[in-house]
Design a protein that fits this description.
alpha+beta, Arc Repressor Mutant, subunit A, 113 residues, 6 helices, single chain
Length: 113
């Protein structure tokens, strides 16, 4: 991923409605949801939803899929993974090693039993 693509993706997600749309679509990955369902679940008027979906699609974070007369949107998980990889590609470069993230207390307890 190039820096300008990362900036576009981060800018698209730096707005609460778009972040909520994206998070909803991630919960329904990989198939996604029809636009009407997104609007109902997030209580958004269709023009508002359309505006935000267009921004997320332009940033290549979601993909539209025409099914009959409706459009289903799904998260572009490969792009999101690319964004995370871009953000972390130089992680700990100064020290040469990274500590793995601590396991949650629930996972630690599960390991002990």
């Amino acid at each position: 991923m190039k820096a300008n693509q990362a900036v576009d993706a981060l800018a698209a997600l730096a707005q609460e409605t778009r972040l909520n749309i994206f998070r909803l679509l991630v919960r329904h990955a990989p198939q996604g949801l029809p636009a009407g369902d997104i609007a109902k679940r997030l209580h958004l008027p269709n023009p508002t939803l359309s505006f935000h979906l267009n921004i997320l699609a332009a940033a290549e974070l979601i993909r539209p899929h025409k099914t009959g007369r409706s459009i289903r949107y799904s998260p572009a998980l490969d792009q999101v993974n690319g964004l995370a990889q871009f953000l972390l590609e130089n992680c700990c470069a100064a020290t040469g090693c990274c500590e793995p993230p601590s396991a949650s207390p629930r996972k630690k307890a599960a390991r002990k039993s």
